[in-house]
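During the second year of the project, the team shifted from modelling isolated chains to modelling whole assemblies. The rationale, set out in the original proposal, was that interfaces cannot be judged from single-chain predictions alone. As a representative example for this report, we include one of the complexes processed in the last quarter. Its constituent sequences, exactly as entered into the pipeline, are reproduced here:
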Amino acid sequence: MKKRLAAAFLALLAACGAPEDAAKSAPPFHAEEIQAHYGEGFQMTDTQGQTRILADWRGKVVLVFFGYTHCPDACPSALYRFSQVMEILGQEATQVQVLFITLDPARDTPEVLRNYAPAFNPSFLGLYVRPERTPEMAHAFHVFYRITPGETPDRYSVDHSVSAYAYDPSGRLRLEIPHTATPDEVADDVRQLLLENVKK
Amino acid sequence: MRSLFLFLALLCWQTAGAQAPQARVTGVWVRATVPGQQATGAFMTLESDVPLKLIEVRSPLAAAAEIHETRVDDDGVMRMRAIPQLDLPAGKTTQLKPGGHHIMLLGLKAQAKAGEQTTLTLVLEDAARQRREIVADAPIRALNAPHQHGEPMR
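Output from the structure prediction step:
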């Protein structure tokens, strides 16, 4: 009798445990999950001249994209996509910060950056480091970039990684978002990161 | 006399052929810039009845214009390169759109303001190396205007 009761108790425990496990293994993200701390704590400058680190936006999901304003194609496409994500998120967009970090601070002066990122959504911010610190910044974030000379010295282009990063509200790097992700997919992933934060 | 008539007829036919509209450009637009930005992109759809090459572009907005190809390689790195010409195969539509080809406008003489308009002069060359120019009006569209494939162009 005791044995049977114990078995029944164990079965009950297992039954209770099952849904809990299911809840723990939340639906997977569209983007690739990343187990690294790239760029967390790295000091940059905003267009008001203030020193910023990603932790300044703790409590929000932070989406980071690296590029340069002379880029006619991939960079505006990425920022446009993030502006669509903000629209999809509606009220939740207030819990998201999009950061555009320039890989070309020589041409992307604070004046250019100040207007560029907000042209896509007024909440978007541009960040930079002094030109000589750009390699260090790219290294900290594990971002690839390379300057390719053009016809004249000031007409170079910058080859660069086009995936973006998502940091959760606790400031941890969580996702690498491919350039092929749709606005709906990014919005889904952002919502999930916000939801996790509520559960905690 | 008869051969002269034939010669003249042939000449007329050839001339007519050379002057017939063989290439069309539609959906031209230029991406707006913010103050201080020195470059931007232009996009369009090209169609040709005969094999043509786009060999040169000019715009009063920019000191220089280059034909560019954008590629995103398997490693997720975007690479942008000037190409000397863009082939326009006969009977096919060639789109210059984000993620593919674009016209890079360099050394902007003024800020490209959304809602304003500029022009692009496209220099096309046929198989016989005959050149023709198409001048297209190019509206300037906001930085965050819809532009992805499948979305309305206007």
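The domain at 21-141 of chain B is CATH 2.60.40.1890 (Immunoglobulin-like). Chain B has one domain: 21-141.
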